[in-house]
Every structure is written in structure tokens, then in C-alpha cells.
Amino acid sequence: xxxxxxxxxxxxxxxxxxxxxxxxxxxxxxxxxxxxxxxxxxxxxxxxxxxxxxxxxxxxxxxxxxxxxxxxxxxxxxxxxxxxxxxxxxxxxxxxxxxxxxxxxxxxxxxxxxxxxxxxxxxxxxxxxxxxxxxxxxxxxxxxxxxxxxxxxxxxxxxxxxx
Length: 163
Known about the structure:
Blueprint: E1 6-18, E2 22-36, H1 40-109, H2 115-150, H3 155-162
Antiparallel strand pairs: 1-2
Helix pairs in contact: 1-2
């Protein structure tokens, strides 16, 4: 068999001859034993174990990547909800700033408010607009990043999933 050990025995005998003494049949002999143990099964077992460990590592790496992607998507969704809230609150702040400006403008026309009061109200409107633009940009950037993470290029389908 290919996996069984083999034992080989070899006997050799030498005889010598000389003209003076003639034939000497007991001049020397040797017995040689050889034992052979095939290790192919160990090599095969080690190869199988190595492949099994590699497969387990690949499975763990795949699971870690899936978990990481899931966390990124979840984080992106929370960021998107936060950005949407920021857009809403920035829009309301702009509305209030514009109402405040209109009130300050009327007071200024009636000489009940100074030009610095009107300038402050105008600055508040301007900064509120900038904040709203920034919040919208952040929301759209988060939306685009989330679409890339989930691999959805069709915006309508993606937005229908968010609802």
C-alpha cells in the first residue's frame, strides 16, 4: 500500500580467493535493513488544515467587512437624519430672521430703530441663509454618500426606500 511502512532487508556475502590460500567463503558478510515510512498523509493533512484555516480567515474577514459596511450605512442614515433636521431648523431660523428684518426695517422707516439695528438684522438674515445653504449641502452630500454605500444609482428607488 502507499501509506504503509515498508521494511527491506538485504544480505550480502563476499568470498575471497587467493592462489596461496584458495577460496575463503567466510571472509565477510553484511545484513542491511531499511525501514521506509511514507509521510504523504501528514503532508496532505497539513495542507488540508492550512486551507481550512485560510477559509476560516476569509470567512472572518468577509463577516468583518459586512459588519463594517452595515455600521457605515447605519451611521450614514443617522447622519442623514441629523442633516435633515439641520435643514429644517436652518429654514425656520431663516424665516424668523427675515421676519425680524422686516420688523426692524419698519421700525427704521419710522425712526424707531437705528441703522446698526437694521444692519444687525440684515447680517442675521445673511448668516441664516449661509447656514441653510450649508445644511442643504451637507444633507445632499450625505445622501450621495449613502447611495454609493448601498450601491443604488437610481435616485427614485433610493428615496422610496428612505420613506
